Amino acid sequence: MTTHPDLILTGGRVYTVDPSNPWAEAVAVTAGRIAAVGAAAEVSALAGPDTEVRDLEGAFVMPGLADVHNHFFLAGKEELFELRVPIGAHLDGIIASVREHAASLPADAWVVGGPWASDRLGEVSTREALAQLNEAAGGRPVMLSDDSHHNRWVSSRAMQIAGVEAGQPGVVLDAEGRATGVLLESAGIPVARAQQAAGGLTPGQERSAARRGVEILNSFGVTAFQDAGVSIHIMEALRSLDAAGELDAWVVSSMLVNDDIFGFSRVGDDLVFDGERYRTERHRPDFVKIFLDGVPPTRTGAFLEPYLPDDAHGHDHRGATLLPPDELADWLRRAAKAGLGAKIHCTGDASVHEVLDAVETLRAEGFADTRYHIAHGQFVHPDDIERFAKLGVAADICPFIWVPGPIVEAIREVLPRERADRMQPNRALLDAGAIVAGGSDWPVAASPNAWEGIHGLVTREDPHGQYPGALWPEQAITLAEAIEAFTIGAVTAMGLASETGSLEVGKSADLVLLDRDPFEHPANQLVRTTVAETWFAGRRVYARD
Question: Taking the model in full, what pTM does it have?
Answer without folding.
Answer: 0.89
